[in-house]
């Protein structure tokens, strides 16, 4: 399949900040690359300056999901380019780099630096991290004990928003929000998403991407199979 | 300070999670020991941990929790890869550990791991093992590893709230000096009292020691400070709330002299010299 001119093996990618492929390679070794769980890999958001992230505790469990307040920890643009980009380039999937600027000028500076890098297939512009105080703040202040909700708890709302967005724009959409299985991915694709991102489910199942791709294919095969009457 | 490099001692995990059947359930006072058949994993190193959830009924507790898997160090490994038996020790203190404590023999878990690094044993020094509470688990595993080595002798100190919890140390046949907070067995007080005596006796006899500890944050901090005062190398197996166990969520960071580290991939065993304090928010829950 094709997304924004990029050839992809299937429609499942990771949500930014829900999978550290370099850490996973340390933990799982070669099997992680031979069974790579995503059609494209979306990096954790990088910013111009290095960020330590928010102080712990950063996580709270909910019945059907979790609240996080991580705060965009990252090495900053310079060390991302020198240390991480060469390593990301060896992953067996196109690289989408997530970036965030604290001003339009900062965003422009980051994109200027990265625009010509062949290792990068696409950029994600992060305008919505709820856990940092910026000019484009959406949401909360972690010091006040709140954060971003993720997981199955948000699935119906996410599905509705993706459906409404698909009706109003003509650009390809990546749908996400509480996807745990192939059926949930199929629902997002059915309302107009071009790709589906898996986030919190990765935490419960490191190979969730592969499982969801398999379940999605099985649903497709079922749909094609002659129906018993 | 330490002559060994702590941090990269690890066995890699199979990619993904896998079913593992509970083989037996034993109770030692308020602690539950689950023995699990892991036919798909490698032999782990003492200090490494697994993410556990039950295959069914994970999410049926109060408020619909638990949702995320729970990180548990293994206490004992038996058998060979392909037919491995892992022991996990837990106390039901929240929705996750309560559900795991309800497990019965024959029930399936989903596990992932081994994750994190293990202890880095410095066999040139006399190992002093220190366990507090449920932190007994990786200390039993380390003691097992030491007993497989020829000619390495060690000391083990175990602190518990009461004699009932101390039953777990006896069940694993850990030869130890005991301390209980209520005085119902062994030394009446914290495990750091016999640790101070042990370190002082070692210093007087010219015996070079190295300390390996796991327990609640306040205990780990007291152990770290005792060792720092005496310039004794110490490795601490720490705890922090974590969602994934393999570096994905960035939730389990602890502050170190090098900034925040993810305990799941850069720990859980940290050299004491990397910490200004082992009192970490989000741990000990």
Total domain count of chain B: 2
Structural class of chain A: alpha/beta
Radius of gyration of chain A: 18 Å
Radius of gyration of chain B: 18 Å
What share of the residues of chain A does DSSP label as strand, in percent? 15-25%
CATH class of the largest domain in chain B: Alpha Beta
Shape category of chain B: globular
The stretches of 5 or more residues of chain A where confidence is low (pLDDT under 50) are 135-143
Q: What is the helix content of chain A?
A: 25-40%
- What oligomerization state is this entry in? heterodimer
Give the largest interface pair and sizes. A-B, 39 and 42 residues
Number of helices of chain A: 8
Give an overview of the whole structure.
- The complex is a heterodimer of chains A (229) and B (285).
- Chain A has a single domain, classed as TIM Barrel (Alpha-Beta Barrel), CATH 3.20.20.
- Chain A contains eight helices and eleven strands.
- In chain A, 35% of the residues lie in helices and 17% in strands.
- Chain A is an alpha/beta fold.
- In chain A, helix 6 packs across helix 8.
- A three-stranded parallel β-sheet of chain A has the order 3-11-10. In chain A, strands 4-7-8 form a three-stranded parallel β-sheet.
- About 4% of the residues of chain A have low confidence.
- Chain B has two domains: 98 residues, Elongation Factor Tu (Ef-tu), domain 3, CATH 2.40.30; 149 residues, Rossmann fold, CATH 3.40.50.
- A seven-stranded mixed β-sheet of chain B has the order 10-9-8-7-11-12-15, sandwiched between helices. Chain B has a six-stranded antiparallel beta barrel with strand order 1-2-5-4-3-6.
- In chain B, strand 4 and strand 5 form a beta hairpin.
- Chain B has 285 residues and is of the alpha/beta class.
- Chain B has six helices and 15 strands.
- Helices cover 21% and strands 33% of the residues of chain B.
- The interface between A and B is large, with 39 and 42 residues.
Main traits of this protein?
heterodimer; A: 229 residues; 3-stranded parallel sheet; 11 strands; 17% strand; globular; B: 285 residues; Elongation Factor Tu (Ef-tu), domain 3; Rossmann fold; 2 domains; 6-stranded antiparallel β-barrel
């Amino acid at each position: 399949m094709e997304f924004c001119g990029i050839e992809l093996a299937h429609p499942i990618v990771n949500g930014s900040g829900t999978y550290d492929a370099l850490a996973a390679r340390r933990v799982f070794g070669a099997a992680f690359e031979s069974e790579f769980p995503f059609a494209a890999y979306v990096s954790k958001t990088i910013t111009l300056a290095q960020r330590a992230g928010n102080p712990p505790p950063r996580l709270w469990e909910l019945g059907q999901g979790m609240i996080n307040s991580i705060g965009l920890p990252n090495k900053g643009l310079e060390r991302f380019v020198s240390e991480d980009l060469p390593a990301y380039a060896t992953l067996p999937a196109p690289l989408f780099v997530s970036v965030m600027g604290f001003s339009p000028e900062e965003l422009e500076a980051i994109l200027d630096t990265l625009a010509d890098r062949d290792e990068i297939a696409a950029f994600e512009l992060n305008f919505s991290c709820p856990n940092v105080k910026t000019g484009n703040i959406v949401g909360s202040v972690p010091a006040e004990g709140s954060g971003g909700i993720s997981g199955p708890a948000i699935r119906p709302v996410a599905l509705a928003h993706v459906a409404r967005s698909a009706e109003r724009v003509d650009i390809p959409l990546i749908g996400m929000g509480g996807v745990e299985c192939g059926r949930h991915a199929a629902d997002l694709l059915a309302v107009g998403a071009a790709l589906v991102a898996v986030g919190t489910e990765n935490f419960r199942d490191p190979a969730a991407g592969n499982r969801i791709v398999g379940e999605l294919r099985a649903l497709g095969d079922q749909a094609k199979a002659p129906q018993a009457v | 300070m330490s002559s060994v490099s702590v941090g990269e001692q690890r066995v890699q995990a199979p990619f993904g999670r896998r079913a593992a059947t509970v083989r037996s359930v034993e109770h030692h006072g308020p602690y539950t020991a689950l023995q699990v058949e892991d036919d798909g994993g490698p032999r782990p190193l003492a200090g490494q941990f697994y993410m556990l959830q039950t295959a069914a009924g994970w999410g049926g507790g109060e408020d619909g929790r638990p949702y995320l898997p729970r990180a548990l160090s293994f206490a004992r490994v038996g058998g060979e890869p392909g037919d491995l038996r892992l022991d996990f020790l837990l106390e039901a203190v929240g929705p996750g550990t309560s559900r795991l404590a309800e497990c019965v023999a024959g029930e399936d878990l989903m596990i992932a791991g081994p994750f994190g690094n293990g202890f880095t044993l410095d066999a040139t020094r006399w190992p002093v093992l220190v366990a507090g509470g449920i932190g007994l688990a990786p200390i039993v595993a380390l003691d097992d590893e030491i007993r497989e080595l020829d000619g390495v002798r060690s000391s083990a100190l175990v602190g518990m709230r009461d004699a009932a919890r101390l039953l777990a140390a006896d069940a694993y046949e850990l030869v130890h000096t005991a301390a209980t907070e209520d005085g119902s067995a062994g030394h009446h007080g914290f495990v750091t009292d016999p640790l101070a005596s042990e370190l002082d006796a070692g210093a007087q006899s010219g015996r070079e020691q190295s300390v390996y500890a796991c327990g609640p944050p306040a205990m780990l901090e007291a152990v770290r400070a005792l060792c720092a005062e005496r310039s004794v190398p110490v490795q601490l197996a720490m705890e922090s709330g974590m969602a994934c166990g393999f570096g994905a969520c960035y939730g389990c960071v602890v502050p170190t002299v090098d900034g925040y580290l993810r305990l799941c991939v850069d720990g859980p065993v940290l050299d004491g010299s990397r910490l200004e304090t082992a009192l970490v928010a989000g741990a000990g829950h």
